[in-house]
Design goal:
The complex is a heterodimer of chains A (about 375) and B (about 375). Chain A is α+β, with helices and mostly antiparallel strands. Chain A is built from 15 helices and twelve strands. In chain A, α2 runs antiparallel to α10 and α10 runs antiparallel to α12. Chain B is built from 13 helices and 14 strands. Chain B folds into two domains: about 180 residues, no CATH class; about 170 residues, no CATH class. The chains are: A alpha+beta (about 375), B alpha+beta (about 375).
Chain lengths: ~375, ~375
Amino acid sequence: MKFFPLVFKNIRRNKRGTALTLGSIFVSLFLFTVLFNGVDSMDRIEHRSDHSLRICVHHKISLTIALPESYRRKLAALPGILAVCPFNWYGGVYRDPKLMFTTLSVDPETLLDVWGDQFEIPPEQFEKFKKTRTGAIVGRVTADKFGWKVGDHIQLTGTVFPVNLEFEICAIPTKDFDPRSLLLQRKYLEESLGNPGIATDFWCRVDKAEAIPGLMQQIDRMFANSQYETLTETEKSFAANMMGMFGDIRSVVGGVGLIVVLTIILVSANSVAMSVRERTTEMAVLKAIGFRPRHVMAMVMGEAMLVAFAGGMTGCLTAFWLFRSPWLAAKMGPMGALFVARPSVLGMGAGVALGVGALSGLVPAVSAARLRIVDALRQVA
Amino acid sequence: MAVPIQYNIRNLFVRKVSTSMTVAGIALVVSTFVSLMALVTGLQRTLVEAGDPRNVILMRKGGISEAASALTMEQYTIVRHAQELAPDGDHDTLASPELAQQVLLQRKDGKKANVLIRGVRPVGFRVHDRVRVAAGRPLAARSGQILVGKAVSERYKGLALGDTLRFGRRDWPVVGVFEEGGSAHESEIWADADDLMGDLKRTYFNSMTARLRDPSLAASLSSRLDADPRLNLDAKTETEYYADQAEGARWMRVLGLGIALVMAIGAVFAAMNTMYAAIGSRTKEIGTLRALGFSRGAILASFMLESVLLALPGGILGCILAWPLNGLRSGTINMASFSEVMFEFTITPRICLEVVGFAVLMGVVGGFLPARRAATLPILTALREL
């Protein structure tokens, strides 16, 4: 520790070199954090449902074919099912059809019975939603994107159903199963479509996890050979299918992240090596006046790790701060869901930064430690 | 007089380790850039390829994709005889009413994704006349059979020629595999429209694709549709329809460019660092060159050149590193149709030229400040340096 001032002095000596190294590590770790977070968010969406007690019943062929509303009663009557909430995909867009977001009609009576653990809504806002026929619950990201506030009146254009609906925004939850969604009252959509009595999918809350496999089979058997056959999925497999639709994009993002890390290692290793080479004579002098090889090694390593950590963490924090700003999430379109960072990302950033510092300092540090005093002193840099 | 280029090349070889590390760094940046551009280019090319400029798509007003559109029997009966449409035999027109339905199928990697099933009548193959059956036999009307696109057939389980797809209420034997120049249609399964309608218990189509007698008649058809209150339909040329979907992939291009740009900034810092170090250790040489009579301009040019010489092989190496990706098959969701579209990573000569130019630019930007420093060194100070 007593060498710390010396290490620090060394870092400050070649200011330009240090600044450039800091800059490139900053930029690279910034990018790495962005990409890592993308993959992490995908995993998170997939795994948050690992222990979920929800199952989803939808049409066997695809989510795009609706089921009859009457299934709801049959599902609710099954022992082991506590509550059933029908969803209906409305497909509304606000002004620009290219800015797609989730618009679902829900049953306000059972929404929280089924999805309560994923929601944090001020109770008075939720009460307002229940009472307002044209009420809407809007996710934070979507609300920020369009600048909507509680109490605003908006109109959406239907792309799936040919109806344009007006809404009054009643609630903006602090936590939501999808912060880009708009939830509307099931009755409102049904009435404006002329009461077709349909639902895209039914989300059921089950009493215990062990009952899920049996129930899934029971449900699909119950509707087999009927007009509308069903496919019942766990929340996990439903989420996995949704994420699976991004296809190979995930591996591409992961691959790019890996290349970024390789690049940072190369870059910082190169600059540490250069700065050590510039000081070969000095290292020899240090050793000549009694510093042990391990001291020299520790100093070089310390320098590399300090610079990598400082540059890397700044980059990581900048990325983190950017994710927290709703502005970016709004700009990212369909990938917006991937731009929600959690604090553990910072821990990962610190780990990568220190790792990069250690790896890049290792070779120069070892060679500095092994330096033969006589050779080094004789060499005129 | 210019400083001989040999001087720079030899210097690069003297500092083998740091030169190769800088080159490798630039190569990695460039290969990332190439891969991302190859992905976007491949995806967009596939979508654009699916549009036939001679055809129009009729969809419900406000509908953004075929699957979310609806075309009633009545509308079809009215519109199929519009005089803008090309004749099909003596009494009919090249108007193909179509169904589009997503179906959740399992890929060979075990994951599930939506695939678009398109229901067509026999006239559909005359409207989409670039579709070619590559293996097996053509689709017979009302046979309960299916043709699968080449890309789907390769990426999904149980969709090879001779397999049987269990979907809806019955089994659909795969009797053929079709191609359409690598277009997005190859990501679809085609069935007979009336078979599909029966199976899905549907009473309406989704859309109609029709051949115009002349591409210039699109506007005239549009105003005919607008004039008839029974229709409530929009006509888009097929090219336009798929170009819009390709436009949906634009965010990926922006993302790719963003990633490449950020990485490039990092690489420029690294190149600058290398060049500063290179110049720092050669201060005396630079002083000597100046004393020999080389002008400041010549020194500036010489070091800029050295920096570009550092970046150029990086650019070329990056292209070579990314090259194996060319032709790699991949797939992602097409947001407009809510189904998977399969494409090939496509590295075009243009991408290569662009990224090599990009690498040279990194060299120029990274080299300028260090080179200027070399050029402005006072001769006396430089020579006095140890």
